[in-house]
């Protein structure tokens, strides 16, 4: 039996926000589908159609109702336009949540990833009552490692051949932040 989770609150620092996905965020999903890396490591549809994009948004809602975790749209707080996704997914260990995120190409380099991660981690280790937030990152994803490091994550090690993709496997760097 799955137990629905309470919704994650909308969060903002005035520049970047996290909020529930809406059907009118479909353009963000379409842009993500065009990126070479996002569909490879996520459930964003590789072959985008409006129906596939809407189904993806509905799956993000079901993460919370199905007890899996939370998926939020990363938004430009000034315009409320979705520019990416941040997910906090429960791990098997009690008190541990995993974090993953992506930004559409045009939103990169503006600090949205750093601010979104900071907002989510602050909530997770505070009101969310988690003891540990961890990230699994491909070794070549230097920008993501930099974002996590700036947000107080520490590199713990490398899991060999840990991540599975349609085109093969990859090691994962494990980074975490603890309460």
Q: Your description of this structure?
A:
The protein has 179 residues and is an alpha+beta fold. The chain has one domain: Aminopeptidase (3-Layer(aba) Sandwich). Helices cover 29% and strands 35% of the residues. It contains 5 helices and 8 strands. Strands 1-2-3-4-5-6-8-7 form an 8-stranded mixed sheet, sandwiched between helices. A hairpin with a 3-residue loop joins strand 1 and strand 2.
- What is the number of helices? 5
Which consecutive residue ranges, at least 5 long each, have pLDDT under 50? none
Strand order of the largest sheet: 1-2-3-4-5-6-8-7
CATH superfamily caption: Gcn5-related N-acetyltransferase (GNAT)
Helical percentage: 25-40%
What is the string of helix and strand elements?
EEHHHEEEHEHEE
Instruction: State the CATH architecture.
Output: 3-Layer(aba) Sandwich
Q: How far apart are the first and last residues' alpha carbons, in Å?
A: 29 Å
Question: Roughly how many Å is the radius of gyration?
Answer: 15 Å
Structural class: alpha+beta
CATH topological fold name: Aminopeptidase
